[in-house]
Structure prediction request, 893 residues.
Amino acid sequence: MSVIIILLAASLSVAGFFLGAYLWSVKTGQFDDDYSPAVRILFENDVAQKGKPNNHLATPPSGEIHPDGVGSTQKF
Amino acid sequence: MIATLNPIKTKCEHCGQECNQDVVVSGEKYFCCEGCKSVYQILNENGLCEYYNLNETPGATRKVTVRPDKFAYLEEEQVGRALIHFRDDVQTHVTFYLPQIHCSSCLWLLEHINVLNAGILSSEVNFPQKEITLIFNHHKTSLRKVAEILTEIGYEPYISLQNLQSEKRKSYDKSRIYKLGVAGFCLGNIMLMSFPEYFSMDGYIETNLAGFFRYLNLALSLPTFFYSGSEFFIAAYKGLKNRFLNIDAPIALALIITFVRSVYEVVSGTGSGYFDSLSGIIFFMLIGRILQDRTYQAISFDRDYTSYFPIAVTKLLDKKESAVTLPEIKTGDILLIHDGELIPSDGILSKGEARIDYSFITGESLPVHKEKGEIVYAGGKQIGGNIELLVTREVAQSYLTDLWNKQQFKKFEDKHSSFVHIVSQYFTVVLLGITVLTAAYWYRVNPSLIMPSVTSILIVACPCALLLSSSFTYGNILRMLSRNGFYLRSAAVLEGIIQADTIVFDKTGTLTVTEDNEVTYTGQALSDAEQNSVALLVSQSQHPLSKAVKRHLNRITEGNVSGFQAITGKGLAGESGNLFVKAGSYEFVTGVTEKNKTAVTAEVHLSVDGKYKGYFSVHNRFRTGTEQLIKTLKKYFSIAVISGDNDFEEKNLQARFGEDSEYLFYQKPEDKLNYVRMLQAKGRKVMMIGDGLNDAGALKQSEVGISVSEKVNNFTPASDAVLEAQSLSRLFEIIRFARSGKEIIIISFIISLIYNIAGLYFAVQGTLSPLIAAILMPASSVTIVLITYGLSGLSGWRLGFLNEKNDSKHDYNHVLT
Prediction:
């Protein structure tokens, strides 16, 4: 029956991981603003077409942009 | 009555208000004022018109113009330091409070603000806090420019003395959320681990494996018991220390006994314990407490005068203007107070003509006129032109600060002992009686069963259901009320509302609207030309009565007044549109001494070409629905209206609210406080409803102090609850809703008693198995949660609180016009 003990250890550590994730997300204030993230994601980035840099594109994390655009944050 | 004339009725493109006579047209768009138009133009030029697509007319009105150099003080290093929270060689991080934030358009525009100024690197809005955090390059732009850009697009930052004094607003307490997370984690795993125990036949699982499960449960229950449950033990200890048996005491007792017996069973190998029930109770009770004590991020109930005062004012030194922060103002300084600014310290008027609005401080509805050389007290708002003030007392010693400190000597505390605590006391006594009887019975029949039965009784009869029913009911009611513009400090306030039998209203700003008046005309009817002339004449003056008459006539005023005369305290005269018009006091207009004795000048008499026509009388405008409200309340409560204002409105009040209520005028803040004390001495439970600083003492003294506010986020005296002004008319429904809460708690408590009796049936026999406990406990908790939520929702639906009112912007507009 030792397999049960192994399974239990596995399940407990998975649950413990989620508990940790939950505590971390509360601590970093991810539940503080329950309105703006939901709305923000729906905004179009069409202001950038005016030739002026858009807020979200103004400081792209340079290390993550591939030359061919794959994985670029600009795709979103 | 004069028929009002509306040339064009159309909605402002920017703020959605109706454009009156001063409509401004740009292209095909109509605006109510130049301010709204200029915001539109700025956004249009920069391609930010998406702002108007996301929501219809999302702007806040801009009728009140902002002085161009208002934010000059932000260049002062000391002020800047108070607002800036990070600064390096290139970047500055700053947070502003923008009370205008209300919709997704605001969010969109404010987060695209870098289009308007390349120096701004990024901006992020915290919606519930109504704050924007900006990161800008201080080589390219400055703090002042950033504030000015925000103001230009209609989001003027609100910067008060509080920014300077408190370092950082502390974020709300998250420890209960952590505790809930830990309890939930442990509960889930303990239940999983307990299933083999519940469903195994005797000896089916291997003994060592069963032991392993039990010890694992014991280990998992430790954080629940010692960490998540800690607040129940602390509350019980505090209560006992103060010789008060609160509801936490029997709960703590039950938790401890459950835990000790479970540990004993596991260690001695006699059973599996009640760890699942234990963590279940703690988990549900924590949810209830979180719901009940939920805080409102944007609202503070303990505001002091620092959030009312500006952060800096203009100081004159050798005819040169400079910004000075309030604590730096010294006796002998000369301050320049602009139109619409607050007077920060007591002083002598050294230049200009002051007309000061003290409605917030004293409750007087009309501005007070002051001449050069007179003493001006802090806290009033200057209306009209600029004035100069010689400071006689520093801010910290001024009249207003003094008044505030005097009334704030004590913190608000829960004044009500909840009936839940009282019920739980009886409950505890009965429970202990049953325990003793059971122990006595088993002592004679079978002494080995004493311990199991006694502990079982205490486990099963934990009054957690009572706690759950009150916290879930009150939590749900608080939530529904807050969505309808009524914010309570704590659930205990609801009990105060339930008990109240006397309601005392303040007049100015509570029953009436300070910024608006009702004008009626008595006398000979005026012709169209005469109306135009009168409107033109009064438009020359900034006096509040002139403004009220002008608004009432609602005319386009063009042309000049020749021979214009304005005699302070008397009236206006001039040749206006070929007619010689005189407007003002009766004596001034007719030359005859006052016909009636009242010194109160809320009447504007009128003569055209020397002929007396009649008079406009200017009354306070009562909030919509107050008349009906008072009439309804009178059937159930005794009502009093207590005002710091003069008694000019007495007849009007009696006509509206009936003659049988008590009306008191010329009441100083102390008088209001003493009046409430007097009522309490008669055994009344008083609910005080006020809005200004002059009500602060009475608000505190009464059983429930409710402050009415048009801007919930600003300017309320310390109180038990904050009520949005337009929800005042629903006060009766609010009281009924609070009362229904008590009934719901009683119903759910009866249901939980039935569960308890079922549990006791097993417990007194000493046969309470963990399985029965594990079914009974969560079942009763879940039933209670469903019943309280369902019933309070039903009650809220019947009283019309279920739907969210969503009109916060238009309240804001209303305040500004």
